[in-house]
């Protein structure tokens, strides 16, 4: 996973169109989001610090208004925390009468957002600020069942000595790859996304 910033948008993480990412083009439709797990690499922390400083000083370009962003404050297993992102994107982009469509999780299994999760997420997150969403995500028992089910369904154990990161790609009108991390600071476009689903 390689990132770069252009001269026009120096503070935005963008992914190069490397073969690994081109593989996303063959993901079965109607998948709306893909969660990827990748190992840490030398210099990543420094890149993140430099980018945070750039955003603080110069601001950040407007995010696509179909992106629903939640800041992560829980220091726990990232898998259950990342799942709400694509699941909410499913419910946000789908019509009110349709079932949430399938999505691909970090273990490359196909999942479907269950109604008992889909409905509470829609009602609980819609009118919250990113900080309020983060607190709700950190404290709600809503996702305990997801974590338990995933842990008991059989997964390959990760290397305990290898730090990993999660990233999530969602379907949006923009054609470029843009990464919006859950721990990003300051909050991107805070004035625009406060009390909204933008």
TrEMBL record:
Primary enzyme class: hydrolase
EC number: 3.4.19.12
UniProt keywords, alphabetically: Hydrolase, Protease, Thiol protease, Ubl conjugation pathway
GO biological process: ubiquitin-dependent protein catabolic process
Catalysis performed (reactions): Thiol-dependent hydrolysis of ester, thioester, amide, peptide and isopeptide bonds formed by the C-terminal Gly of ubiquitin (a 76-residue protein attached to proteins as an intracellular targeting signal)
UniProt superkingdom: Eukaryota
Domain UCH catalytic: 1-198
UniProt GO molecular function: cysteine-type deubiquitinase activity
Gene3D superfamilies linked to this entry: Peptidase C12, ubiquitin carboxyl-terminal hydrolase
Family from the record: Belongs to the peptidase C12 family.
Name of the protein: ubiquitinyl hydrolase 1
Taxonomic source organism: Laccaria bicolor (strain S238N-H82 / ATCC MYA-4686) (Bicoloured deceiver)
């Amino acid at each position: 996973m390689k990132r770069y910033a252009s001269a026009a948008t120096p503070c935005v993480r963008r992914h190069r169109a490397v073969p690994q990412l081109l593989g996303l083009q063959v993901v079965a439709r109607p998948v709306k989001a893909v969660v990827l797990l990748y190992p840490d690499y030398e210099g990543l922390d420094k890149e993140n610090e430099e980018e945070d400083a750039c955003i603080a000083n110069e601001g950040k370009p407007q995010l696509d208004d179909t992106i629903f962003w939640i800041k992560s404050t829980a220091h726990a297993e990232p898998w259950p925390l990342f799942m709400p992102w694509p699941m909410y994107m499913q419910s946000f982009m789908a019509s009110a009468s349709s079932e949430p469509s399938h999505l691909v999780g970090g273990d490359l299994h196909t999942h479907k957002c269950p109604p008992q999760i889909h409905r509470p997420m829609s009602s609980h997150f819609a009118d919250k600020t990113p900080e309020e969403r983060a607190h709700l995500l950190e404290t709600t028992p809503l996702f305990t069942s997801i974590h338990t089910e995933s842990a008991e369904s059989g997964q390959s154990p990760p290397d305990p000595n290898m730090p990993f990161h999660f990233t999530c790609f969602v379907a949006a009108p923009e054609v470029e790859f843009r990464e919006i991390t859950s721990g990003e600071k300051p909050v991107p476009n805070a004035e625009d996304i406060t009390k909204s689903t933008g």
